[in-house]
Amino acid sequence: MDLQLRNKIIIVTGGARGIGKGIATVLAGEGAIAVIVSRTGAENMATVKEIELIGGKAFQVEADLTVPFACERAVNEVIMKCGRIDGLVNNAGENDGVGLLNGNYENFMRSLHKNLVHYYLMTHFALPELIKSKGSILNISSKTADTGQGGTSAYAAANGGRNALTREWAVELLPYGIRVNAIAVAECWTPLYERWIKTVEDPEKKRKEICDHIPLGKRMTTVHEIANTAAFLLSPASSHTTGQITYVDGGYVHLDRALS
To answer: Same domain for 202 and 108?
Structure first.
């Protein structure tokens, strides 16, 4: 299937590694120009080079998206270099473990800026160009908004906000022909996930316990599976899909885990 993404300018926040890197790579493979916006320039450039080695096109903008001005500057840099924006993937963030018992106001608010506020800011600043191009917006979300996890109040709240903004923006942007969707991720093997699981007492045992609760295949979702769905939702191939939260999770959230 031709996803009709050739030469489309698509921003991917947190695009230097993990899910963001997977999305940027798949988009470039479809002929899009992936714009990696992340805070670590060296990682950004390494991913750009990897994409270029497989024949894709990409460039990077170094920005700490927890700083409001940096969001505006990043968007303006993309406009200056490319003259337009055709798509936006809000992806940057991490499960930082700011809970209710162990948290405080400062850390809770810091986590919201890390995981939610820049979703709004990047979209706000990119919106004039997205209106011109009738572009698409994709928010990466997490199952924590639905299932809870324990010990991660801020991240769960941020993902509830990501889902709500997806539906809200889909309504607000209907007159402009802009589609807004989300992908809810459950257990996906990424560098951040690997870093976390190494902190538990028996990482391999813990990984098996997690996989045993994933109905389809008893395995974690791959980054490539998330990225393929992302490319579809950003493309004209999904031209009548908006306001949807798509669960690429092997049935983790909605299927009965008693299935054998």
So the answer is: no
